[in-house]
Amino acid sequence: MKTKKKLLAILNTPPGEPFIINHLNAVSENISEIKLRIAYGSTSENGKIKSPLNRKVNAFAIPNFDRLSTLKKASFVFKYPFKKRSQIKKFAVEQFFKRQKADIIHFHFAGTAIKWYNFLPSNTKFTFSIRGSDINVMPFTNSTYLEKLKSVAEKAMRIHVVNEELADRFNALLPGFEAKIKCIPTLVSSEFFDISNMPLDKYIIAIGRLHWIKGHRDLLLACHLLKKKIPNFNLEIIGEGDERQVLEYMIRDLGLTENVKLTGNLSADEIRDSLSRAAFLIQSSLDEGFPNSIAEAMAAGVPVISTKCGGIENVLNSENAFLSDPGKPGELAKNMELAIKHQFDRENWVNINKQKARENFSKQSHCDQFSEFWNLNG
């Protein structure tokens, strides 16, 4: 009987991004060649922690020596008396990775790989995912980021992206790694395909963290223009982030308190409930990899209004969505008006998008491609 390979997935904070949890659930349930473990980096805990997955999978926290109790710090000092105190923190993390005895380690963000790969035992095989923030934000906010990313890419076995647009951007920033890159689209949970959409008139939702790159300021400016023609529309913005105060001020200042609601974070069940009632999903991003919210809306049969950025145009076009250029609130407002006035073939768009979602975001295809990505049969 063939021995299962041990895969250690490294996430940031518990429980992890919903789309990553969906991915890990699918991997643990459908790829029989691996034994999955999960490790969290940004956590105050040390040792075994609760797994966020449906199936019983071991989950751990990477030791955070700075936040250990005085007693636990002392135990490390007494256990390794010949180690300098300044070296114990690094040594504790190195020992953690050695104990996992992983055949493959996958970092779910490039930034996570940069933070932890130097602690891995020599000759450890690892892979990592490139997300939109890894390419669209980090190179501009961290002067040494690209140098560190290049070092990680050189040592990685393979690199995962969710669409060709991200691959092209990565190659433009750091050429020479084309052979390592594998494009595997995002996964949509089967529950989204089962949603029965009964749209409420003029009810629009946006899903995404409150970050400047998501273009919510442009969205509110578009709403201000839209209100002059359609006074009674409703927009619910689902998500949380640093932009909340700015957006709250804009909602008040633009006279949108009766139209726009900042809901904050919702559970997966609550998001599916919102999609079941939404007439449209709107995405106003200035830049993207590929928004999971769009994939989920397509599966749920909710028509999409979006900016043309990242990998969005690989899936959506004028025959199945309302699209406009990023950073142009006037165009966004016009498309919102057309959508609310039903100037499109809704039934046809829904059918096209559901089929595209099945073709691009299904569980089986996703797992087959990751099995190849990790070379599980090799």
Short description:
With 378 residues, this protein is α/β, with parallel strands linked by helices. It is built from 16 helices and 14 strands. Helix content is 42%, strand content 16%.
Structural summary, described in words:
With 378 residues, this protein is of the alpha/beta class. The protein has helices at 18-30, 70-79, 85-100, 110-116, 132-136, 138-141, 145-155, 164-173, 190-193, 216-227, 244-253, 268-277, 292-300, 329-340, 346-361, 363-373, and strands spanning 5-11, 34-40, 47-49, 59-61, 104-107, 125-129, 158-161, 181-183, 203-207, 234-238, 260-264, 280-283, 304-307, 322-324. The strands form two sheets. The chain has an eight-stranded mixed sheet. It has a six-stranded parallel sheet with strand order 11-10-9-12-13-14, with helices on both faces. The two termini are 15 Å apart.
Task: Indicate the topology.
Blueprint: E1 5-11, H1 18-30, E2 34-40, E3 47-49, E4 59-61, H2 70-79, H3 85-100, E5 104-107, H4 110-116, E6 125-129, H5 132-136, H6 138-141, H7 145-155, E7 158-161, H8 164-173, E8 181-183, H9 190-193, E9 203-207, H10 216-227, E10 234-238, H11 244-253, E11 260-264, H12 268-277, E12 280-283, H13 292-300, E13 304-307, E14 322-324, H14 329-340, H15 346-361, H16 363-373
Parallel strand pairs: 1-2, 1-5, 2-4, 5-6, 6-7, 7-8, 9-10, 9-12, 10-11, 12-13, 13-14
Antiparallel strand pairs: 3-4
